[in-house]
Amino acid sequence: MTAPRPIALSCGDPSGIGTELAIQARQALAGEVPFFWIGDPAHLPPGTAHAVIAAPEAAAGVAAEVLPVLAHPFPHPAPPGRPDLRNAAAVIAVLERAVALVQAGAASALCTLPISKKVLKDGADFAYPGHTEFLAHLAGVERVVMMLACPELRVVPATIHIALSEVPRALTPALLEETIRITEAGLIRDCGIARPRIVVAGLNPHAGEGGVMGREELDWIAPLVARLAAEGMAISGPLPPDTMFHKAARARYDVAVCMYHDQALIPIKTVDFDGGVNVTLGLPFIRTSPDHGTAFDIAGQGIANPTSLVAALRMAQQMAAARGM
Questions:
Q1: Which end of the chain is more exposed for a tag (fewer CB within 10 A), N or C?
Q2: Model confidence over 220-234: pLDDT tens digits?
Q3: Domain architecture of the chain: domains with CATH
Q4: Buried/exposed code over 17-47 (b: 16+ C-beta within 10 A; e: otherwise)
């Protein structure tokens, strides 16, 4: 049997906690999940057990306790907690290189360590709101979906990083339908769920309570859900958001499609704060990420928690297996 292709792990901002998390994840996984880190070896803490590899396939020959490194030189040092705008272009270049490797089949999936959107914008005029939008651009995809996942819950926000006051205008029937369809296709292809059970949250308190607290549910959300169900989709809703996330309710569905950022992220961060994984659905390749930021304030102190990264790498491996990679 052919050995599974390794996962490409992009370095993110090298002054954040990503570098130390990569080392911790390698030690925690002990070779269970094959991956290699793309970044500058000079940014690794002194004494880090690592091996510079010439190509991704060489990662398989590296000892389990040693970090395989596909070297990508950066122009400047990266002291923990002190991001350097002059490294911004190299952070972007690492992402481009990682995507190229995955698209070429040299890696089975992409796992991304956290970037600083402000550093990239100020240092390299980065024109994208974040990782997700940039990866969609590199893949030539117009629309992708962010899913947050842990063993107990999967959630998808239909609108993401916008003010709450903008949600009712941004949340259109076309947007919600596209979000639901991408979510269903992603769970079938990447999670091995033949017929995903989807629940849709209401926008308003009590899902509008018959129009007393808002009419979006009556006017178009419920008809949209009914139409998709008539097509054969295993979908229900809109449901009152405050009754969707207790343990018994979660057992009745595979994914919850929510209307806005906090409606989706508050429950998953409550259920599994450390182990949540950010997954991008709708890309032609697999992408996962730990569900946290660069944490410049604790970088280099040895207190960063690798749980989310370990979960992200494991999930990438499972998704690759579901795709037969």
A1: N
A2: 999 999 999 999 999
A3: 1-144+275-325 (3.40.718.10), 152-271 (3.40.718.10)
A4: bbbbbbbbbbeebeeebbbbbbbbbebbeee
Helix 131-139 vs helix 88-103: angle between axes, to the nearest 10 degrees? 50
Beta strand segments in the chain, E? 7-10, 35-39, 50-53, 67-71, 109-112, 145-150, 153-157, 198-201, 235-239, 255-258, 277-281, 287-290
Q: Which amino acid is at 85?
A: L
Instruction: Specify the pLDDT at position 161.
Output: 83
pLDDT tens figures, 49-102: 999 999 999 999 999 999 999 999 999 999 999 999 999 999 999 999 999 999
Q: Is the pLDDT of residue 29 over 60?
A: yes
- d(CA 137, CA 283) in angstroms, rounded, equals 10
